[in-house]
Design goal:
Blueprint: E1 2-3, E2 6-15, H1 17-37, H2 43-69, H3 75-92, H4 97-123, H5 133-171, H6 179-210, H7 225-230, E3 237-248, E4 252-259, E5 265-273, H8 275-295, H9 312-315, H10 318-363, H11 375-395
Antiparallel strand pairs: 1-4, 2-3, 4-5
Helix pairs in contact: 2-3, 2-4, 2-5, 2-6, 3-5, 4-5, 5-6, 10-11
Length: about 400
């Protein structure tokens, strides 16, 4: 950000990781309970069978790539990799060790699921209350068995990948440290790379497929993390975990505040332009003088034309000095108007006094019944007319601005 005179402060709070871990665990168990409570009997065993079929297909794909790699290896390594592939294939077929393990796990998960349903019904569990200890124990046992089965299958696929890598490594090991032996081993490694990469790709794909939990979206990987954070109590937050401050006075100050990927802030740069300080100080001082003069009722005019270099516009006083000129003009206009109004009032009073002065003579018995042509009346009328004529410019003043 850029600022003339200002400051910026940023603070980041952090949530207690222990609280997050506990709440995430509890949320995972709640979702697991909902999953189990709405799932019909034998459903988990059937899911184990379906996921085992996926596992079997992944194992067969890996062993197929291993069989393609075997002919490119020396006899000893070929025999070792053939044995690993055959053992894996036998293990996933009917009666094999992995097939038997999956059947036992399916039956055990069904028993554990029923234990969870019974425990939930016994305590009348609802989501709005903490998970009772007995129900929590049953849920954790179910979760552990599901994870154990996945670990067994993942380990089997990774063992196949390791067997292929070991065989290739043994086959490409130099016979001695001579340059010729090293060169020959390097060439063999390059030749085996495509086949070995195919085995690794199939193994990694199989591991990713196996990672899916028997409880599907009820695993800890799919819980509402945002909800846990938003609903955390005030006491679980540590205030001002990270703070960043920047400030500037006068001049131009450029501040760079960066938000890192870890959600904390840091000041990355601060640029201060000192060339503006004198100009800003001049503006402040000029405006202070002009404003003080105006508050005292003294109009101030600029000494040079506004807007030119080094004048009021440059030192920041143009607006105030212009207002001072307008103030002085307004005061002069007001004074002129007041003078004209006073002159008009005086003229009206003078004319009135002239008319009042001749009234007694005109109403006297000697003249009141005389015609207007009477020399005495004419003389009195002429005196009033002369007074009106002399006062007329003041009496007829219309423009008082």
């Amino acid at each position: 950000m850029t600022t003339g005179c200002g400051s910026l402060g940023v603070a980041v709070d952090v949530l207690d990781p222990g609280h997050v871990q506990q709440e995430m665990s509890d949320e995972g168990l709640r979702k697991l309970y909902r999953e189990i409570s709405v799932t019909q009997a034998e459903a988990f065993a059937n899911r184990v069978d379906r996921q085992f079929n996926t596992f079997k297909q992944q194992v067969l794909l890996v062993t197929n790539e291993m069989m393609k790699l075997a002919p490119k290896l020396p006899t000893a390594e070929k025999q070792a990799i053939d044995a690993s592939a055959k053992a894996a294939n036998d293990g996933v077929n009917d009666g094999g060790i992995y097939r038997v393990e999956a059947s036992k796990a399916g039956d055990k998960l069904e028993r554990l699921a029923q234990d969870v349903r019974d425990a939930g019904a016994r305590v009348g569990y609802v989501r709005s209350v903490p998970i009772p200890p007995d129900l929590r124990e049953k849920l954790v046992a179910f979760q552990a068995e599901d994870r154990r089965l996945r670990v067994v299958k993942v380990r089997a696929v990774r063992n196949l990948k390791a067997a292929a890598e070991n065989a290739a490594r043994s086959a490409t090991k130099p016979a001695d440290g001579s340059p010729a032996a090293v060169a020959a081993a390097t060439a063999k490694t390059v030749a085996l790379a495509p086949a070995l990469n195919a085995v690794a790709t199939q193994a990694d794909t199989g591991v990713n497929a196996i990672q899916r939990s028997i409880i599907q979206d009820g695993s800890l990987a799919a819980t509402e993390y945002a909800y846990v954070v938003a609903s955390a109590p005030e006491g679980a937050w540590k205030r001002d975990f990270n703070r960043a401050f920047a400030s500037g006075t006068l001049g131009n100050v450029d501040m760079v505040i960066r938000l890192n990927s870890t959600a904390d802030f840091s000041v990355k740069g601060l640029l201060f332009d000192a060339s503006k300080v004198a100009q800003v100080a001049s503006k402040v001082l000029t405006q202070s003088v002009l404003l003080g003069a105006q508050m005292a009722g003294v109009p101030i005019r600029t000494a040079s034309p506004a807007g030119t270099a080094g004048t009021a516009n440059a030192n920041g006083g143009e607006a105030l000095s212009q207002s001072s000129v307008e103030l002085g003009t307004a005061e002069a206009t007001l004074e002129k108007r007041q003078a004209l109004e006073a002159s008009q009032r005086n003229a009206i009073r003078s004319l009135a006094r002239s008319m009042i002065a001749v009234t007694p003579a005109l109403t006297d018995d000697a003249l009141k019944n005389q015609p207007a042509s009477n020399p005495a009346r004419v003389q009195l009328h002429q005196g009033i007319q002369a007074s009106f004529t002399s006062l007329r410019p003041l009496l007829e003043v219309q423009e008082l601005q």
